[in-house]
Amino acid sequence: MPNTQQFASDNYAGICPEALRAMEEANRGSATAYGDDPWTLRAADAFRRTFETDCELFFVFNGTAANSLALASLCQSYESIIAADIAHVETDECGAPEFFSNGAKILVGRTTNGKLTPETIRAFVLGRTDIHFPRPKAVTITQPTETGQVYTLDEIRAISATCRELGLRLHMDGARFANAVETLGCAPAEMTWRAGVDVMSFGGTKNGMAIGEAVIFFDRALAEGFDYRCKQAGQLASKMRFLSAPWAVMFETGAWRTHAAHANACARHFARQVEGLPGVEIMFPVEANGVFLKLSETLTAGLHARGWRFYTFIGGSARFMFAWDSQIARVDALAADLRALTTADAA
Questions:
Q1: Which CATH number fits domain 17-253: 3.30.420.40, 3.40.640.10, 3.30.420.10, 2.120.10.30?
Q2: Whole-angstrom Cα distance, residue 241 to residue 250?
Q3: In the chain, what is the straight-line distance between the N-terminal and C-terminal CA atoms, in Å?
Q4: What is the mean pLDDT of residues 329-347?
Q5: Do the beta carbons of residue 149 and residue 179 sit within 8 Å?
Q6: Distances (CA, A) of 157 to 43, 140, 152, 197, 215
Q7: Is 275 helix (H, G, I), strand (E, B) or coil?
Q8: Residue 20 — pLDDT band, cuts 50, 70, 90?
């Protein structure tokens, strides 16, 4: 790859070899449309083996659809969804969950790290129970959070227990689920249905695929009519095999975990190099594939002047995301430029 690799987003990365090979193989000959093809069946079986359960799943084009349609399946229009204040479904979905649910309201809980707590959930449910308030019906957690931190298994179980007690359904936004699995070193089942998650959006794009996310229903009864939701929302792919084939190969080869482990390692490597530099503060624990830095305006401008691209948000932090294809030499170059700028700034 050229030496212009950037770390503004893991969406910048290309297609990993396994996903590309799967699409090339799926491109040979013809196959039945709309998901009734061998590749989609093979991918579905791979999901069930990986998660050790007979789950129901659907493939959609992007994360906004995966999250929004999943949440819409859990709520009536007069109900509500409890989410963290910086959850992706609240800050970056352009109102899609409300749109696809025909009006279900997102109730935003204040957090310091993007993590919901049982106490926050309980306060929403018990705070108002009158007919004038949209009745809470679902909870969504982002794993990892928008600050790159990972819910522990105990934290997920505690949230799930609260949901069960209060009659709520639990959704997990797993756009970077693979990174979280690698961080905790657990089986996918342990972080999801065994911990009480009902539905999950599993991200493939940030894990090295070209396009395509999966919606997994661990409670099959909740999937009733979801195929119609996908069709109505323009998410039913006619050539479904090109969405499903990469999943089959990624699971069968273990590439989904290998690539996530590499991305996480690059984030830790970068964090170690910049930790303690004058004027540089690591704002959140580095637990997945993202590093959030508090930088002065001078340092921010300096990095931009040297050609580095990154987003500045969440408390004014500069976010650097690492992907399956992140080059250690390029990570080192970024750290070296930041080190040089801090030295000049101090002088």
A1: 3.40.640.10
A2: 14
A3: 35
A4: 90
A5: no
A6: 28, 13, 9, 9, 21
A7: coil
A8: very high
Query: Does the bond joining 144 to the residue before it have cis omega, within 30 degrees of 0?
Result: yes
The beta strands (E) that lie in 143-279 are given as: 169-174, 199-203, 213-217
Residue 153 and residue 193 in contact, taking contact as beta carbons nearer than 8 Å = no
173-208: pLDDT as tens digits = 999 999 999 999 999 999 999 999 999 999 999 999
- The CATH label, of 2.60.40.10, 3.30.2000.30, 3.40.50.300, 3.90.1150.10, for the domain at 256-346 is 3.90.1150.10
Query: Strand order of the sheet with strand 317-321?
Result: 280-282, 290-295, 317-321, 311-313
Residue (of 24, 57, 52) closest to 40 by Cα position: 57
At 1, the pLDDT band (50, 70, 90 cuts) reads: very low
Amino acid identity for residue 87 in this structure: A
pLDDT value of residue 79: 97
